[in-house]
Amino acid sequence: MKLPLExxxxxxxxxxxxxxxxxxxxxxKQWGQKxxxxxxxxxxxxxxxxxxxxxxxxxxxxxxxxxxxxxxIGFGWSHLPANARFTGFCVGMIGDLxxxxxxxxxxxxxxAGIPDKDRTELVTDGxxxxxxxxxFLGFDLQYIGVLLMYCNLLTGxxxxxxxxxxxxxxxxxxxxxxxxFGAEYLDYRHRVLRYLGRRKEKTGI
Length: 205
Hints:
The protein is mostly helical and about 200 residues long. The chain has a domain at about 10-25 and about 45-105 and about 125-190. The protein has 7 helices and no strands. It has helices at about 5-10, 10-35, 50-75, 80-105, 135-150, 155-180, 185-190. α2 packs parallel to α4 (about 80-105), α4 (about 80-105) runs antiparallel to α5 (about 135-150) and α5 packs antiparallel against α6 (about 155-180).
């Protein structure tokens, strides 16, 4: 006898798997860079008031959402049907894979936050040919995926807060990259969309 999807799928282990893979990637990358003398965590180090404020709130959002997600998973707070929850697992795992590809392509140029003194390279190959911010896209998809699996007011509020703060951070990084790389970044920005996709290049006759 075939069991209903709601009964047959182990939602709690699947949600924990999404989180474990995502934060495992983050921590392994950070550990690997630390061994090479690279300070990955740069959040809140810049002196400009606006930059410092946005990165501080982004840090609060991205850290605060973790206990909200774990509480929701632990207590089983979910108000969506089984199909939506399975979709959430798929979305979350896609976010994990995108995040993995982004940190691999960035190599040692990857930082959390805008670097204060480090000079990194402008990465435009690999997954960055199709998204200017694949790491942020991975964050967003992971958050949305877990929210679909365990949808409730607590996780919903933290998800919206985190996604908004990550978007504000993207806008801030765009200004920084324009100032540092100039025409090279502007050309890249013209060709590749902020989250996903490429603009069609005009060809002459």
